[in-house]
Amino acid sequence: MRKPIIAGNWKMNKTLSEAMSFVEEVKNSVPASDKVDAAVCASALFLAPMVEAVKGTDLKIGSQNVSDKDSGAYTGEISPVALKDLNVTYAIIGHSERREYYSETDEFINSKTKKTFEHGLTPILCCGETLEEREGGKFEEVIRTQLTADLAGLTEDQVSNLVIAYEPIWAIGTGKSATEKDAQESCKFVRDVVASLYNENVAEAVRVQYGGSVKPENIKEYMAQPDIDGALVGGASLEPASFLALLEAV
Ligand code: PEP
């Protein structure tokens, strides 16, 4: 059985003191990690004190980005070596906002994913289609193209330990969530692509999250679907009560 994983993506929100008061408020109330993996992916500015603050609890910390290089002359980048040294657990890779606003390509995303595994972090690899692509009947082609390139060269073992966040771009931050039926079909398609690129065992092991306007009021319906193993949550992960409510609904 795949363990559910709920990850908050705070994006470029919160100050250090806001981040720390969130962590203090939720860290001892998250459900046990044998039931659900709970994480918040915060600005790189807060990762060190956040990791320190959650030590010994079931809350894990993730980065929202990671470099595909270890170190060197890459101004502004976030080293996977430094993330591992801090005991950061996850790194979001290929979020649609990074694909769109920072021109991240599938090749670059693939390189980051490999590097992240090399240093023992767990990637949360995002994929998803625009509204235009969905309405134009291109959903399958877009997802297959993204995943084929993003996963190229990864081993069966790595993909089995990967988290894939399926996030339809039209549902991110818009309040327009996919129906649970559409989200299930899309997450199943993601799993089918993994099966075709690897095999059934890998496809059964990989965890697939749905992301796009998930909130405490709708998470139960998503989590009841057989191919949805969790959620990547933006807006509804920012408030402690809402984040805890998401976890309690799993
Ligand atoms: C996200 O940032 O990945 C996301 C899904 O955001 P929201 O939950 O706000 O739609």
UniProtKB/TrEMBL annotation:
Pathway info: Carbohydrate biosynthesis; gluconeogenesis; Carbohydrate degradation; glycolysis; D-glyceraldehyde 3-phosphate from glycerone phosphate: step 1/1
Reaction catalyzed: D-glyceraldehyde 3-phosphate = dihydroxyacetone phosphate
Predominant subcellular localization, coarse grouping: cytoplasm
GO molecular function, one term: triose-phosphate isomerase activity
SUPFAM superfamilies, sorted: Triosephosphate isomerase (TIM)
The keyword Phosphoprotein appears for this protein: yes
One Pfam family named in its UniProt record: TIM
Parts of the chain that traverse the membrane: none
Residues the record lists as Phosphoserine modifications: S213
InterPro entries in alphabetical order: Aldolase_TIM, TIM_sf, TrioseP_Isoase_bac/euk, Triosephosphate_isomerase, Triosephosphate_isomerase_AS
Enzyme Commission identifier(s): 5.3.1.1
Family statement drawn from the similarity comment of this UniProt entry: Belongs to the triosephosphate isomerase family.
PANTHER family cross-referenced by the UniProt entry: TRIOSEPHOSPHATE ISOMERASE
Name of the protein this chain belongs to: Triosephosphate isomerase
Protein species of origin: Gottfriedia solisilvae
